[in-house]
Structure formats: C-alpha cells, structure tokens
Amino acid sequence: MLVPRTEIERTIATIWQEVLKVETIGINDPFFELGGHSLSMVRVHSKVREAFSSDISLVEMFQYPTISELSTYFERQKSKQPVVEPSESRNERLTAGKKRLQQRRQKNKKS
Question: Quick check: is 42 in a domain?
C-alpha cells in the first residue's frame, strides 16, 4: 500500500477517510472497493470541490477513482496541463450506469 505523499494526496485521503469511515487508505485503492458508493461519492465531491476551490464535475470524480488519479487531475489543473482522459482499463471497471454517464459527457463535449 502506498501512503499519500503530497499535500493534495493527503487532503483527498483525509476526505475519503472521513466519508468512508476507514482508517488507512492507499493512493491506488479504488474508491468503490473501499466501500464507496454513488451517495458517498456525492459527499466526497462536495468536500473536494470546497477543499480545492475546484469546479470538478461529479462525472469527472467517477472517472478518477483513486487518490493517485484524482491527485494527478488536480496537479494538472494547477499547472494548466491538459488532463489525460481515463484509461481504457479504468473504463472497463465502470458499471453500466457510470458508462452511460461517461458516454453522455463525451457526447456533450462533441456538441
């Protein structure tokens, strides 16, 4: 298990620990495998937006399901680098509902 190393990783980990009521979290532990669900993601989303003064969407939160991936998203936002779209392997882990959300988001981007 890799422990949070950066300030961003530590902040995200603290939020997840609070919402999921778990004591230890590795930066590569998937949110939903830690007991997270859609309602807990909404709570995390709200806290993350506040902590980072961010306009990250709920759909984006689902696309970056580990502390490492979410931290990379915020690092790139901070440095204005383009955010890399989620990898195909990550997409394969999405449930049918999450896939529909992602497809809608991609469709809306094209419009």
Answer: yes
> Around Cβ 64, how many Cβ atoms within 10 Å?
20
Q: Which amino acid is at 56?
A: I
**What's the pLDDT at 21?**
97
Asked if the structure places residue 16 within a domain, the reply is yes
- Kindly give the residue spans of alpha helices, DSSP state H, lying in 1-111: 7-20, 38-52, 58-63, 67-79, 88-92, 96-110
pLDDT tens, position by position, 30-65: 999 999 999 999 999 999 999 999 999 999 999 999
The pTM assigned to this predicted structure is 0.71
Give which of 87, 15, 94, 34 is closest to 62, Cα–Cα.
94
- Say which amino acid occupies 50: E
CATH of the domain at 26: 1.10.1200.10
Residues 6+ apart with CB under 8 A from 90: 63, 65, 69
The total of structural domains in the chain comes to: 1
In a domain, 2, yes or no: no
